[in-house]
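Lecture notes, continued. The same structure-token format from the folding unit now serves as the input rather than the output. Read the line below as a description of shape only.
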């Protein structure tokens, strides 16, 4: 029987996840999706087009779950499918294999997903300020990269929208530092260490 390798969420490895239990990565995304569903559906709005951006998609496991909420008419995905990736090296995944898994996991949502095979800092100007409802940052986890992504993409979010990201956790001190330096303490942190910040420009 072929050995099944770990993935980042659906078959997470507890040693990689940093939480001592593998299924927290999956359950945490379930928490986020439910939270977003009730948050956006509780807001009075006349909008007919809800748009999201995901920075860093890897195999598309979290993307599949976000798309399944039915909240978004368009999800822009920024994933170059190249570069150094510790997870790939640790568990023997090539980028070609990761890309194949991404295609499999997102196959039911091709009508709403737009893939940009680029780095986030290369295409930030492609998106108009104040037009995006939700942005999820899960690319490179260094302080510099996370801070850059927040600063580049925060203006893209509509007032009342959400900017969020993964790995607000002691294992990733650069993520914590970048989030708190630019945004302050998150409004919420889910069990998989996803941080959430509500964009309220009326109280700036």
């Amino acid at each position: 029987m072929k050995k099944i390798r770990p993935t980042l969420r659906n078959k997470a490895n507890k040693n990689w996840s940093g939480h001592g239990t593998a299924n927290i990565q999956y359950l945490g995304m379930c928490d986020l999706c439910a939270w977003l569903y009730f948050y956006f559906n509780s807001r009075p709005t006349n909008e007919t087009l809800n748009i999201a951006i995901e920075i860093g998609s890897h195999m598309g496991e979290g993307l599949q779950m976000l798309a399944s909420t039915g909240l978004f008419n368009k999800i822009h995905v920024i994933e170059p499918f190249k570069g150094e990736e510790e997870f790939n090296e640790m568990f023997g995944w090539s980028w070609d294999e990761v890309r194949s898994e991404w295609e499999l996991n997102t196959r039911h949502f091709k009508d709403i997903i737009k893939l940009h095979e680029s780095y986030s800092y290369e295409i930030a100007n492609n998106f108009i300020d104040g037009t995006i409802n939700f942005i999820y940052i899960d690319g490179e986890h260094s302080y510099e990269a996370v801070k850059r992504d927040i600063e580049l993409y925060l203006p893209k979010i509509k007032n009342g929208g959400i900017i969020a990201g993964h790995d607000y956790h002691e294992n990733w001190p650069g993520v914590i530092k970048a989030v708190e330096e630019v945004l302050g303490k998150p409004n919420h942190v889910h069990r998989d260490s996803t941080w959430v910040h509500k964009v309220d420009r009326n109280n700036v």
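Point for the exam: The chain has a mean pLDDT of 92.
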